[in-house]
Design goal:
heterodimer, A: mainly alpha, 4 helices, about 0% strand, elongated, B: alpha+beta, Sufe protein. Chain: A, 2 domains, 18 helices, 5 strands
């Protein structure tokens, strides 16, 4: 169980932070490349989802670190489920507003 | 689904008959098993017990010198998964000296939450006429109300029986009120809406169905947690009929399911009332559910579902434990209770609902298997009648 202590350390939160930054930069690059507009509301939707996904990972990690595997499993499945379903909904909202010609081009390639 | 479109063959009907015969044999075997032996339980309550004499549900307990040392009352009632019986030991001074659960068939998750040992410990040491029955307060918090109600009723019945036989005191049992409330009204309304909307077409019908399903999700799901489950069906088929005064809802749901399947060919419970179906549809709208599965995989999963339902029923009948058949993850969604496997199943089903149309209904739900069996049998009988007429 000592290995699980990594989830209670600053290193774990450092990795969480890197993940958040990579996701934000990745989304920005992805949307630019495909010419999909990113108004403020989309950033808010994405931000909420990133926070929730981060919370899910943190919940599972800290539960494991505290020696609570049942809480980690059930919390991970519950919050993971909300994160996946919310992520699917958020993704549909994020890619909305794509130019139809652009969409065809992307599909062809 | 292709189950409905494929021509009905004799072979399939023979398969159904064989399956029903095997299940009937398992149930017969389960019911012929010996009743639990009470002697060791009585000895655990009265260590000095040497012999007993039965007087209906009350056992007179004697020591080695044939002196009466107390009474053990056997009380029975019906829980969520079937009958429950409790043995209450009362000594010659009228003090409860021990309580034992003789048999119970509750779902393990709910049973563990019912905190039965805490309650049994709490009443041990009380006088028989001072035993507290405020255990339901705990039950309301833990959510295992049916199990705790059954424990209370069993204890109350045992004590009343012993009081009558041993102390000549009549302890009247409280009369259960006939419970017909909002839940029952909503169930009737949902079936009525389902029947009425058969005349509607297009978006109007879709809107009505959405309204009914969301009502079902809120009332039958999150509020009352009373969808039809395989455990309830198995309990009824095993002969453990729930008390009609307190369980009208399950009778209404089952009657609605069976009647609409037989009369209309499609059960309106799944279409208009099932709370889990509604949850899947909502997730499907979020995800877009565009994935079309190849027909062979659909057939394989439907077969797997039928095998799982048969296996669950077989195990439940053989052991007379209806709770064994309950593999549905409904309680996980509506009250966050269930085994790790049910949590995982819920996760898989709802994530799959993003891409596939109502995967639980198609590939996992026991009600779908029952519906298909009824539909196939109905079509086969109709064909036979036609053939006989020509």
């Amino acid at each position: 169980m000592r290995a699980m202590q990594i989830f209670n350390s600053g290193f774990f939160w450092f990795i969480e932070g890197i993940l958040c930054v990579v996701m934000i930069l990745g989304l920005r690059a992805f949307m630019r490349e495909r010419g999909i507009p990113m108004p403020a509301w989309k950033w808010v939707v994405f931000g909420v989802w990133v926070l929730f996904a981060g919370f899910t990972i943190a919940f599972v990690g800290t539960s494991l670190g505290e020696g609570e595997p049942t809480a980690a499993t059930r919390g991970g499945l519950l919050f993971g489920l909300i994160a996946v379903i919310g992520g699917a909904g958020a993704w549909r909202a994020l890619v909305s507003g794509r130019d139809p010609g652009e969409r065809a081009q992307v599909t062809d390639s | 689904m292709n189950e409905r479109k494929s021509p009905i063959r004799e072979q399939r009907i023979v398969r159904y008959i064989v399956a029903v015969a095997i299940l009937a044999a398992a149930l017969t075997y389960g019911r012929t098993r010996a009743a639990p032996d009470l002697e060791p339980l009585i000895e655990s309550i009265f260590p000095a017990a040497a012999s007993t004499q039965q007087d209906q549900n009350v056992y007179h307990v004697y020591d080695t010198d044939d002196h009466l040392i107390g009474w053990a009352g056997l009380g029975q009632s019906g829980g969520y998964g079937g009958p429950m019986s409790v043995l209450v030991g009362i000594d010659a001074t009228g003090t409860v000296v021990g309580v034992r659960i003789v048999e119970q068939r509750e779902t393990p998750v709910f049973w563990s939450r019912a905190r039965v040992p805490d309650y049994l410990r709490a009443i041990t040491g009380s006088r028989y006429d001072e035993v507290g029955y405020d255990y339901q307060d705990i039950a309301a918090v833990t959510g295992a109300t049916l199990s705790t109600d059954a424990v209370i009723e069993s204890v109350r019945t045992s004590i009343a029986d012993v009081a009558g036989v041993a102390f000549d005191v009549h302890m009247p049992l409280p009369r259960k009120p006939f419970e017909f409330g909002l839940l029952e009204i909503v169930i009737l309304a949902l079936f009525a809406v389902g029947i009425a909307s058969r005349r509607l077409r297009g978006p109007k019908r879709s809107r009505v169905r959405w309204g009914a399903q969301i009502t079902g999700l809120v009332v039958l799901g999150f509020w009352k947690e009373s969808p039809i489950t395989l455990t309830k069906i198995t309990a009824i088929l095993s002969g453990y009929l729930p008390d009609v005064r307190t369980s009208i809802a399950i009778y209404l749901l089952l009657a609605g399911f069976l009647l609409t399947t037989i009369l209309y060919g499609r059960n309106l419970y799944c279409l208009y009332a099932c709370p889990f179906g509604a949850a899947q549809r909502i997730v499907g709208v979020i995800g877009g559910r565009r994935l079309k599965l190849p027909p062979w995989s659909v057939r394989a999963m439907e077969t797997a579902r039928n095998v799982v339902v048969f296996g669950a029923l077989f195990a439940a009948f053989l052991t007379l434990q209806p709770a064994l058949a309950g593999y549905e993850p409904f309680a996980v969604l509506f009250s966050l209770r269930g085994t790790n496997l049910q949590w995982l199943l819920l996760f898989i089903v709802l994530v799959a609902s993003l891409a596939i149309r109502t995967p639980w209904c198609a590939f996992f739900c026991p009600m779908r298997t029952i519906e298909v069996v009824i539909q196939d049998t109905k079509r086969w009988l109709r064909r036979k009648r036609r053939e006989a007429a020509t």
